[in-house]
Amino acid sequence: MTVNAELVASLRVPPGPVDLTAIKTHVAPGFDGGKEDGKAALYALGPELADLQERLFAEGRSGGNRSVLLVLQGMDTSGKGGTLRSTVGLMDPQGVRITSFKAPTPEELEQDFLWRITRALPEPGYVGVFDRSHYEDVLIARVRSLAPPEELERRYDAINRFEADLVANGTTVVKCMLHISPEEQKKRLLARLDDETKHWKYNPGDVDEREQWPAYREAYEIAIERTNTEAAPWHVVPGDKKWYRNLAIGHLLLDTLHRMALQWPKADFDVVEEKRRLTDEDPLS
Amino acid sequence: MTVNAELVASLRVPPGPVDLTAIKTHVAPGFDGGKEDGKAALYALGPELADLQERLFAEGRSGGNRSVLLVLQGMDTSGKGGTLRSTVGLMDPQGVRITSFKAPTPEELEQDFLWRITRALPEPGYVGVFDRSHYEDVLIARVRSLAPPEELERRYDAINRFEADLVANGTTVVKCMLHISPEEQKKRLLARLDDETKHWKYNPGDVDEREQWPAYREAYEIAIERTNTEAAPWHVVPGDKKWYRNLAIGHLLLDTLHRMALQWPKADFDVVEEKRRLTDEDPLS
Questions:
Q1: B-contacting residues of A 227-256, CB under 8 Å?
Q2: Mean pLDDT along residues B61-89
Q3: Is the pLDDT of residue A189 over 70?
Q4: What is the pLDDT confidence band of residue B113, given thresholds at 50, 70 and 90?
Q5: At A173, is the secondary structure helix, strand, or coil?
């Protein structure tokens, strides 16, 4: 049991109004050490994370209905991709389902906003990861007025009902906002411009969104407050230090899997009889 | 460039009739060294594999249409899952799409056998991996007479047309049969029975399939011969040594990505202007 409970607890958003300006972005709560220690600590979580994930996968193959859904939200450059590579990459890819949500297609826009989300939910035994999610429908949708106010209003409650149903049906929902400062984003955007191998990640539209930073902050604060339920609580992960962000989400995943008390499934066949079939009756040896 | 060309060439099945009994399962062609060397060599491929995969992903995000499809076939315990964990796991999970094909559902059975395959194809920029595939429809389907002979006959040609279309549309198809001996399978099945944490992987039905080993061998030989096209050739990977199997598929993936001559996409925006926007016009600093 290598979960860092203090670290995990520090990420959890308490109920009530949310003030993101009061949550520091460049800190490393619950961890004493620097970048190299943090990377080593993440790497050290690998075996236990992989073991628990395999138990979950095994349970799913044996008739269990439980799964995990990790929701990653954050401004451009906040590190959703890096988290997928460094932390989610510690798990067996066989049991992971990543979905990256882009702007909805015309087909998706004809449906309720949760339609495409439902289609991407993890099957039993899987760890699903959403790189952006249904929260875009109350974030960019609010900032850019992509839906009328009463529809936005309806969505918070719809999300809460949707997530409560998910949890009731066996999916543990872990929601993370990767929290960076506007200064850090500027640094990262400039670094992308300075490196030809990173130009493909840069989109001039990201700067237009950046200009709406205060409006996005407000949209996040409202969304987190309105959907920070007991069933599916929010975490805000300080994200200016990439190594800390990766480590924090590693601990959060490990903590989530630990709480599920995953056991290896019992054999639903006669082990002794199967051994006999393979040794005494085998036509090939 | 760390591709082992000799190793890769040794896996390629030459055109013409296939005799699997003549291909050794416990060997390590093209690699001088033992288990620990092999594991280290695989690990050493990681950075180059990740770099090329990221270029492919970048290309896909920038309007390119190319992708890779790795097809894994083999008898039970031949190591499809281990390959996913150890070799496919070296790549960024963000750019990988794994599909495990089970027995077709009633809905799938109502459609052509390629229907569910088409739905699982990798999007541009992705490395798709099939854990079992449309080849089951000429393997178990042949051994267990799940389709009439004329339908089986039709399928080989349908597969060749399907794969040729895929290749013409930008997908590089890499087909691998993981080749183990019946003795090795017996050892692995018994090991699963001896370990309570592996009981979930054991299915008494696997022994029923094992009893059809000669029929499966013949079905593989026919399928490989009939679908070993220039566009989408077959590889047989000696699989008794797990470390060699993982390393061989690592080299095969690396070789595949190398041949694609992947370049970082050029910026489709004015880099200087974007820097100016971020520094001179930024309202947040």
A1: none
A2: 97
A3: yes
A4: very high
A5: strand
Residues in chain B closer than 8 A to A131 (CB atoms): 94
Q: Residues 6 or more apart from B109 whose CB is under 8 A from it?
A: none
Q: Which CATH number fits domain A5-279: 3.20.20.80, 1.20.81.30, 3.40.50.300, 3.40.50.1100?
A: 3.40.50.300
Cα Dmax for chain A:
74
Residue B152 has pLDDT above 70, yes or no: yes
List, in sequence order, the alpha helices (H) in chain B: 5-11, 35-61, 80-86, 106-109, 115-118, 140-143, 149-168, 182-194, 204-210, 213-227, 242-259, 271-279
The neighbouring-strand residues paired with B204 are none
Q: Is B141 on the interface with A (CB under 8 A)?
A: no
Asked if B200 and A283 come within 8 Å (Cβ–Cβ), the reply is no
What ipTM goes with this model? 0.94
Which pLDDT does position B230 carry in this prediction? Answer: 96
Alpha-carbon distances of B31 from B41, B45, B66, B72, rounded to whole Å = 10, 14, 30, 22
d(CA B137, CA B133): 8
In the numeric block, the tokens 């699963």 are attached to B192
Q: Does B283 touch chain A (CB under 8 A)?
A: yes
